[in-house]
Amino acid sequence: MLKKGVLVFVAIFIILAGYVVYKINYCRLYLRGVDSKEFNYVDGVAYLKGDSKPYNGVAYSTVCGGECGIWCASLHWRAEFKDGLYHGNFDAPLAGVSDGNWFSPGDKTDTYVYQNGVRIK
Questions:
Q1: Which residues contact 88 (CB under 8 A, 6 or more apart)?
Q2: pLDDT score, position 26
Q3: What separation in angstroms does the CA of 100 have from each of 6, 62, 65?
Q4: pTM of the model
Q5: Residue 86 and residue 24: Cα distance in Å, rounded?
Q6: What is the mean pLDDT of each run of 10 residues along the chain (121 residues)?
Q7: Quick one: residue 28, left, alpha or beta (phi over 0 = left, psi -120 to 50 = alpha)?
Q8: What is the pLDDT of residue 23?
Q9: Are 93 and 102 contacting, i.e. CB atoms less than 8 angstroms apart?
Q10: pLDDT of residue 36
Q11: What is the pLDDT of residues 21-42, one digit of tens each?
Q12: Do residues 55 and 44 make contact, with C-beta atoms less than 8 angstroms apart?
């Protein structure tokens, strides 16, 4: 009987550990890019601090300024940039972008689509 209990405990532990590893890796993939605190905006165009070229890539705004959650950061938004402007998907909480609203990677979000800084969807 004891062996069966130990086996069940080990199986549950392995499943939970696998889930934790999955969530951490999913978070890292979702958050590849830079925190928006690394930006300077000039005439509405995003530049990385210290860089003279407009930003290209993914950026996000975290609730607490970094990875502070158990699994991952809580986000105000995540967006794709091209030439310093929103270009591609912009993920936002279902309740809208504001200091009081946030989401975690994997949550259902509103996804807007931008082209050269203009929202098209």
A1: 79, 80, 81, 82, 113, 114
A2: 66
A3: 44, 12, 14
A4: 0.72
A5: 27
A6: 75 76 67 86 94 94 63 79 96 80 82 95 90
A7: alpha
A8: 63
A9: yes
A10: 87
A11: 666 666 767 778 888 889 999 9
A12: no
Length of the chain: 121
Q: What is the rounded distance in angstroms from the CA atom of residue 25 to the CA atom of residue 23?
A: 6
Instruction: Give residue 57's identity as a one-letter amino acid code.
Output: G
Three state DSSP letters for the chain: CHHHHHHHHHHHHHHHHHHHHHHHHHHHHHCCCEEHHHEEEECCEEEECCCCCECCEEEEEECCCCCCCCCCCCEEEEEEEECCEEEEEEEECCCCCCCCCCECCCCCCEEEEEECCEECC
Tokens at 18, concatenated:
């696998």
